[in-house]
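Exercise 7. Predict the joint structure of the components listed below.
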Amino acid sequence: MTSHHDTGAKTVAEVGEFGLIRAVNENRRQPSSTLLGPGDDAALIATPDGRVVASTDVLVQGVHFRLDWSTPEQVGRKAVAVNLADVAAMGAVPTSVLVGLACPGDTPAAMITELADGMWAEAAAAGAGLVGGDTVQADQLMISVTALGDLRGRDPVTRAGARPGDIVAVCGRLGWAAAGLAVLHRGFRSPVSVVNAQRFPEPPYAAGPAAAEAGATAMIDVSDGLIADLGHIAEASEVGIDIRTDALDISHRLIEVGTALGADPLRWVLTGGEDHALAAAFPPFAELPEGWRRIGSVTMPGSGLTVDGEPYHDEGGWEHWR
Amino acid sequence: MTSHHDTGAKTVAEVGEFGLIRAVNENRRQPSSTLLGPGDDAALIATPDGRVVASTDVLVQGVHFRLDWSTPEQVGRKAVAVNLADVAAMGAVPTSVLVGLACPGDTPAAMITELADGMWAEAAAAGAGLVGGDTVQADQLMISVTALGDLRGRDPVTRAGARPGDIVAVCGRLGWAAAGLAVLHRGFRSPVSVVNAQRFPEPPYAAGPAAAEAGATAMIDVSDGLIADLGHIAEASEVGIDIRTDALDISHRLIEVGTALGADPLRWVLTGGEDHALAAAFPPFAELPEGWRRIGSVTMPGSGLTVDGEPYHDEGGWEHWR
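Solution:
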């Protein structure tokens, strides 16, 4: 994929900062919202709405990805996807991405251009462009991505608007990345569909604005796990949430993998992070947009986060540092 | 400065991700442009102009700062200042900052809140707020900052608009950070004014929009050194630039330090980076805004970057990886 980049077998130290920036940005196609792309002190992006949605996430090698498990292109896709999912979870349409990249000087330049290929591919899939960034030297590969988006005149859908009686629904895969992680930890590399879900998420970007349009009262992207992230909505909205396990559509693929590894696929679905599905609350009689499926209800304040009406004692979820 | 944060002597691992985010954001005052601050999937910032200026820079411990030379508060100021200077160099008014922070789990939480104090102080000095971010674990302290700004209806001032005959002018200090670095490398800690210039820049934020208002044809912030950065303007504008050394107002403080260390203060002024002064081209008869001083002229294409009419053979400047 990188044969068009003239970096040969050189390291980033040999190619130099400006050569690297050139290699990462040449032959790329910016969306029309990019009024001024990379190459100046700053980028300029259209915000027709008069507001801009902005989110930053940092991925660190060995913590958020492993280069013996993922290709640089997959890591690039993941770094951009996790950020664009945050933008979509506000109900916004992604417009652009800025990338801060730190890596050792002896990193092959081709690795960075492959990483950039993945970033550009994922940004393009959401209609966004890479508009700027910075590359610096560090002991460890680290990727910081800031994603921007436009609400197209709608109110942002925060975590705080869910009301008792609302429908709770999700769009996108749940538990796949966790299943993939379990597979990789056992030293396997298949089934590929499950393993790839761990390598890079495929967030349903368009489902965020569609949910906002349909009147979603609260929304979040499932990065820490369904229970943990619905817990964030419950806390911010000061309500309870009950998940119905019979409404969780567990893929036969996850059941197969669970059986093979002696693991419970329901646990992956309830607690597995990194799939970046969207979860939202909708008014009781809302018509759910395409791809959204009901999985529970918003309950009264004080009733907490329950599964089939009972507290779930194996919370899982992912918090850094702990 | 951090006595109001309830983190005691704990490490970031002990405080946890959510505790850290709380400590960093509590008791802070957002500007009116922050429509939705930290705590949700993304922030929402007003962009009354219908466009947003965006820039990202990454600072790495041991590469861009040293904690035996600078306090965490000074590092925080620097991380934000270098980004806000990029926004100002487009002629924009800074509105907000997003921060991606990576550090080892055994980092004292108080260090991170001090870092945040510095970030908040610098952002506030420019009228901006910290609107979001991410904290993750890594082997090395790394700070990635994205700064956003508003052009207030003006065209962006890029590097590409300088024309032969234009005035070349600067606003802000030149050579101070380089002098401070020379002092620190010799193991000294004074004069404090010079050493502090290395610890954190004080970019003249308001001078960027003022220059745009006065008709600046090209602008850049001096991060790599005056010759290197004016070279970027010359290249992007396809012109030459001549700097007149008799117009460079070399502070007696730099002359003193140069004498003490046996170094040439003119070289610091011409090649020293990290002061984040602003350099710009103005039309021949423009009235320079307050604080701007003429240091040279834009010359014909092909004449290159000259000092007193001669090529300068000791380019200096700072390029990563090389």
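Discussion. The radius of gyration of chain A is 20 Å.
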